[in-house]
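Researcher: Sequence recovery benchmark, item below. Answer with residues only.
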């Protein structure tokens, strides 16, 4: 069998790997590299266990650092692996530092590169992930776009060969585990919640956590939405809240502040929420899948189709905009399943097997 190297390092990539890896292994001998970009157990190994992802063959354990140093450490680790073993294709996911480092390493070793979630842009170079997207798509050989928008953006860059709209691999897992996700009423009971009687909220992007005014507006909006807010707190966000002395904002009577939770529990809480409030692209997509309206706590999104259909609304980290949008929230009449039909992973594996 031909050999494939898949590179992951952050929570969304673990989820994408869980969907793609079992299918890839029907066609390829797969080696998995975990860069260690997310080093907290609940953000890393727990997902491998829960989603039955094969144990990584290599863990670079780069940990937390500045973006440049993190990418440099990943490059050194990947260079050692790629110097010792020849692979027929390298697969990277999304837009993290691990993604960009994987793209550069594959290019330097002259190995074909496949980019899962290709073609997405936020058109703002102040967003840390934007440079990773640009670097990766310039160096890729196979482009697996999740939406028509991704295909169009690549075409505008002059990239038209080996471009495929396959849908989003994260959505594959929602299809696979749908009954288990929506049927988990015990989780709602654990937090004294009723279906459609609460909000699900997350915030972790540096643009929000590193700006005290933005983060405070978000937290104050959570306290004034009029329903319980289930708020799994990202380690970065909790650190900032502690440093700013804002722990009292988490003790508001309607805020249910909890530690990070697993994939399936997260999906259950999204599926039964009245709406989600998030700066996470993953949660934005997952809410759309379950036909749950979303408030995007950011100034832009890659998932423009979900906004056009009226399921997601961009408010940014603005308290008054958040609350006003929630007051006028309506369930849209259009839902086109624009993120795919649950077969993205199979399409990717087949395309690679025929072209490598």
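Model:
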């Amino acid at each position: 069998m031909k050999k494939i190297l898949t590179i992951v390092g952050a929570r969304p990539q673990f989820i994408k790997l869980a969907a793609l890896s079992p299918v890839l292994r029907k066609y390829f001998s797969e080696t998995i590299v975990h860069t260690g970009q997310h080093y907290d157990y609940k953000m890393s190994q727990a997902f491998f266990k829960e989603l039955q992802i094969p144990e990584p063959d290599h863990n670079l354990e780069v940990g937390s650092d500045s973006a440049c140093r993190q990418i440099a450490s990943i490059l050194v680790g990947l260079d050692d692996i790629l110097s010792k073993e020849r692979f027929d294709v390298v697969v990277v996911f999304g837009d993290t530092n691990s993604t960009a480092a994987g793209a550069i390493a594959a290019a330097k070793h002259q190995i074909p590169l496949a980019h899962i979630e290709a073609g997405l842009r936020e058109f703002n170079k102040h967003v840390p992930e934007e440079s990773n997207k640009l670097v990766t798509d310039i160096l890729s050989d196979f482009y697996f776009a999740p939406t028509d928008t991704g295909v169009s953006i690549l075409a505008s860059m002059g990239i038209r060969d080996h471009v495929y709209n396959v849908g989003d691999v994260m959505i594959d897992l929602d299809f696979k585990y749908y009954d288990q996700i929506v049927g988990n009423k015990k989780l709602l009971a654990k937090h004294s919640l009723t279906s459609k009687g609460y909000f699900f909220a997350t915030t972790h992007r540096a643009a929000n956590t590193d700006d005290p005014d933005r983060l405070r507006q978000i937290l104050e909006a959570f306290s004034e939405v009029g329903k319980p807010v289930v708020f799994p707190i990202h380690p970065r966000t909790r650190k900032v809240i502690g440093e700013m002395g804002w722990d009292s904002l988490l003790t508001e009577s309607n805020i249910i502040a909890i530690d990070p939770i697993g994939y399936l529990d997260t999906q259950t809480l999204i599926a039964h929420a009245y709406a989600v409030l998030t700066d996470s692209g993953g949660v934005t997509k997952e809410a759309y899948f379950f036909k749950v309206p979303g408030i995007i706590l950011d100034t832009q999104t890659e998932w423009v189709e979900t906004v056009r259909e009226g399921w997601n609304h961009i408010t940014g980290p603005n308290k008054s905009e958040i609350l006003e949008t929630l007051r006028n929230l309506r369930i849209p009449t259009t839902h086109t399943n624009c993120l795919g039909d649950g077969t993205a992973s199979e399409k990717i594996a087949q395309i690679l097997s025929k072209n490598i």
